[in-house]
Amino acid sequence: MTKRGAVTLAIAFTLWICALSTGSPLYLLAAVLLTLMAAYSALSVLLAAYSSRAEFSVDESVLTRGELIHFSLKSSGRTLLPISAPSATVMISPSELPYILTLPSFGAKQTSYYQVYPTRHVGILTPQISSLTYEDIFALFRVKRETKYQPREVSVLPLPYTIDMMEFAKGDTGLETLTRATEDTADPADVREYKAGDSLKKIHWKITARRRELYVRRFEEPNQPEALVLVDPASPGCQSAELNFCFQDAICETAYAAALRHEKADHPVRMPLLIGGKNIDYRSADGMSLQFLRQELARMEFTSPENIESLLKMEIRNLRKTGATIVITSRLSGRIVELLQRIRRMGPTVRLYFVTLRKDDPKLIKYVSRLQMGKVQVCYVLPVIPKEEGAKAQ
């Protein structure tokens, strides 16, 4: 019941008392009319709420950030008197505020309503109708009916962009090792028939003499050094939830861009991720696809108690096959600077992608200067944020 309905019933009750105490037909007529109006309004709303049928569907299951979700709502039902257009409470994800959709009409004939919603952030969305609200045309009664739809997951994937290729540590491109391996004639992996252009030093003379055909030694090619990408799994710790989402978008999209750039250059990529309390070790050399990586990045919740510092400490012992290290984070401290410099001294080139809005902060400038003096590359990543959030951040 609305406030207007409560006032209407109070007036009707007062008119009934006046009619019964004075015997006035005018009071009696007014009381009967108000009572009938309230009764029919209440019955109409209740019948509409409990006879209605609603179907909610989402067209897409995988999108890239910025694309539109298309969903439809179909409803039908019965009522005694016409009622106001029902409204639906739409929830896109638990992290976003719901919004209200007003349906165009309501009746026994099924009506359809189509809506689009822009995907602003990377993540997993669960669009659903949480409730339907019905109200009579006099706005006396309102019934809110909860719905029990099974939400369908929609993955919003990172938006790809281009970054510069890392320069691998000198001697770690794989070419030098390949040259040394093919010059070591004492340790061939196999032999094959001679092809025009093969070096004469590779000819296996004993087998050639035995088979009376030219055969050359075949050597195992060494693996290319891998690019290690480390993503900060902790919350960016911004002032608002919206800013947090913007920073997370920048981190995920930079991580995907780094993997995409180096895999195109035929360098294996390794990216350890913490997702839902589980360790996901992405390795392109094991046949894992970039699409799988995008899906996993979309599932990152950034709620891990671990941060980039603990991740660096853990991975610093596993750099034997690493030719370049890429670190993506929105936090910077003296300890993180020391760990990055230590990795650089161990051989691999190091690049830091620093997601921040405060690149002019004197304290951060001091850390960046120390990194650059230690031959660590530093790239700033500016998250895309709404204007109102940008004003707050200032």
Protein model, in words:
This protein is elongated. The two termini are 46 Å apart. It has 394 residues and is of the alpha/beta class. The chain has helices at residues 3-22, 25-51, 175-183, 205-211, 241-264, 290-298, 308-315, 334-345, 362-373, 387-393; strands spanning 53-58, 62-64, 68-76, 87-91, 99-102, 111-118, 123-125, 128-135, 142-146, 154-157, 190-193, 215-218, 226-231, 269-275, 278-283, 322-329, 349-355, 377-381. It has a six-stranded mixed sheet, sandwiched between helices. It folds into three domains: 1-157, Immunoglobulins (Immunoglobulin-like); 175-218, no CATH class; 226-393, 3-Layer(aba) Sandwich (Rossmann fold). Helix 5 packs antiparallel against helix 6 (290-298), helix 7 (308-315) runs parallel beside helix 8 and helix 8 (334-345) packs parallel to helix 9 (362-373). Mean pLDDT is 82; it is low at 172-187.
